[in-house]
Amino acid sequence: MRKTDFITDNSVCLAPMAGVTSSSYRRLCMEHGASFCYSEMISAKALTLKDKKTYKLMEFSPLERPFGIQLFGYEPEIMAEAARIIEAELDPDFIDINMGCPAPKITGNKSGSALLREHDLACSIAESILNACSLPVTAKMRLGWDGFSSLELAKRLEAEGISAIAVHGRTAKQAYKPPVSYDLIGEIRKAVSIPVIANGDITDESSADNAVRLSGCRSLMIGRGSEGDPFIFGRIRSFLNDGVVLPKPRDNELFETLFELCDSLCEEKGLYIGIHEMRKHALSYLRGFPGAASLRNAAVKLETRADLEELVRRALSLKYS
Ligand SMILES: Cc1cc2nc3c(=O)[nH]c(=O)nc-3n(C[C@H](O)[C@H](O)[C@H](O)COP(=O)(O)O)c2cc1C
Description:
By secondary structure, the protein is of the alpha/beta class.
């Protein structure tokens, strides 16, 4: 059995989010209690073509371990070749197969959630990757394409040798519309003996509690709930482990992490791209602040770290004046 001992009872991992979960973002979340994390989705084809941007997306620091590289694609041989390269050149803790992305530009190529209606192909991809490398291989999927059909696929993936499955409790057709069905994630969990990680709309202790109760899963995955709040991982883990509800971070603690992200992102991607990417992160941090419209306006125009500092000063003065 390939080792996935980082997936433990009450582990709470950071979901892969293309365009959001950069190396800097992942580091911040790991620092604040995420149990493990994934790269943004990586095109297997682009990787095998040695595309520079794709290589950049796969960079990670030891502080992000346990770290998995998530591949998308539809050609078993290309996926296998990508896995071989990943193991030889990057040696992450695991490789994950994207079977959940509903974006038409991905599913149009039989990749992402399109694999949920091509079970033979999904299994053949899993088999090829498993034969090509000795890393643990996991899958991230949804409940099905247009109905609940992933249970059979999960069983087949387990038989192929997949080590764990993360399930976003929606169908591909639903995209991000409600509801999330934790009970159906639970049906998948009951059908396999590998860990099943429950995902979808976990944003606080009560939604985490709900996800655990209804799915019976011992591990959770958080995506959007971490945006603007990296402390969420520590809070949810404390709640799951000890039943203790930790206080929410104070504004100054929260904004410290925003500046930490800014500095780290500018180092990772260069000043120009770093600050531009900070615009969306700033928006997330300012959610719920009074005067949100004018703050949003300023956030989407950030050009420098000083602009960010000024924005935070304004946000705090609007809140406390
Ligand atoms: C902006 C964005 C980018 C995403 N990118 C990926 C991705 O690269 N790979 C993937 O498997 N899922 C991706 N997802 C889906 C998330 O991993 C997660 O399954 C989904 O957001 C539901 O979890 P949440 O409600 O905790 O956010 C993405 C989601 C968002 C919002």
